[in-house]
Amino acid sequence: MNTDELEWALMKAERRVLEIQTKLHRWAVDDPHRRFDDLYNLVTDPAFLLVAWDRVRSNRGAKTAGVDGRTAASISLQQGVEGFLGALRSSLKDRSFLPLPARERLIPKPGSTKRRRLGISTIRDRVVQASLKLVMEPIFEADFLPCSYGFRPNYRVHDAVSEVRHLTSHSYEWVVEGDIRACFDEIAHPALMDRVRLRIGDRRVLVLVKAFLKAGILTEHGSLKESRSGTPQGSILSPLLSNVALAVLDEHFAQAPGGPASTPNERAKRRRRGLPNYRLCRYADDWVIAVTGTKEDAYTLKEEAAQVLSRMGLHLSEEKTLITHINEGVDFLGWRIQRHRKKGTDRWYVYTYPAKKALHAVMAKVKTICRQVNTNQPLDELLRRLNSVLRGWTMFFRPGVSSATFQYLSAYAWRRVIKWIRSKHRRMNWKELRRRYCGGEWWPRGQERDLFDPAKVRTTRYRYRGSRIPSPWPLAIA
């Protein structure tokens, strides 16, 4: 199959997959108690496998091999996409398919000396997981509540942050900052599969999901480790399964008195009686509970959350689960959310700006890049790598009160680049350095590009979307 034929086949496959996903989502919304049978034929459908292959191939991780040593590029060159997907479909149809263990890779955990475990599956397993996700995601999306923002189509980090800002601006002053200890490693398989069975009735799909959970991990030392709990972090299916597991927290606080299901009159009555009202906001395993009440009420809700999570085999980290007042500030998803007085006025507002931890992380990246790029290379190579990091970081934190942070980062990047240039030319005076590397000015510039200046990025305000986040699968066809 040549490139043009593959592109045309992919376009038709994507159209077919979207149509089927829309039907599955509509049926799941119409009947909250429906259990879906005969989904395995969709997982093995050529259109679903082709779309799954395209998503795996387009991912940055496609260049990383699993335990079989194969990458997406090597499969395309040696076996061909059509032959690979045909053989994979045959093994799924005759039920001979068996997932291979994930290859363990330990990476540094940002902001600490600890390391996070990633499980790198084979390309073959990734394609099957992606196909499973294409089938299962529209069904479970019908059940996920608006308070869940992580790893969901059309949902963003900024939506979760703006939700917390909105709540803390409207009397929800106490905040429980939840931290689940080793969430991806400790989810109980029986409890997770029980929740999957609420919606999936096809035994073949359930067996396949469980096989991925039990596939095991090949450690960096070459030993095989059994998977008795958890979902491998880095797996395509893991974000969806973790949302299925953690939805117990969403459902508990959504149904309890004082939660989002309460009417304004009911919440007003609770306040008059000295009872708390609260709202949960969760992004994957990072979550906060905003509370209208006292600090003691927040402690009670924290213990309540711990009991709910224990059903899934999860536990809170006592050291990292904090209870703070919005005037003291909350760190959430890299942002600092804090209420303070507006300069020159007596009015108090809740502001969002980059957290110190996020700023220190990008500064560490700038420092590392300046050390990694040898001084015998041209300045353009250094600027190319730095600009990518600085531009991406500032675009992420642009919707906030970030100008002062951007100016600080700009000054830091300038100092690191100037230090690099001076190390490159130790005997060059300032006048000559500015002439050759700053165009006679003060800002570093190479032959092809200038150093990206974070201070020139104009900040904006993120439009609060609330529960009006569109679904990729419309319930009604226009």
TrEMBL record:
Looking at the record, the residues that make up the Reverse transcriptase domain are 88-337
User: Keywords in UniProt for this one?
Assistant: Nucleotidyltransferase, RNA-directed DNA polymerase, Transferase
Query: What InterPro entries does the entry give?
Result: DNA/RNA_pol_sf, Group_II_RT_mat, GrpII_Intron_Splice-Mob/Def, Mat_intron_G2, RT_dom
This protein's source sits in the domain of life called Bacteria
Q: Does the keyword Transferase apply?
A: yes
Disulfide bond recorded as keyword? no
Q: Which Pfam families match?
A: GIIM (PF08388), RVT_1 (PF00078)
Q: Name one GO molecular function term.
A: RNA-directed DNA polymerase activity
Which NCBIfam families does this chain map to?
A: group_II_RT_mat
Protein name, please?
Group II intron reverse transcriptase/maturase
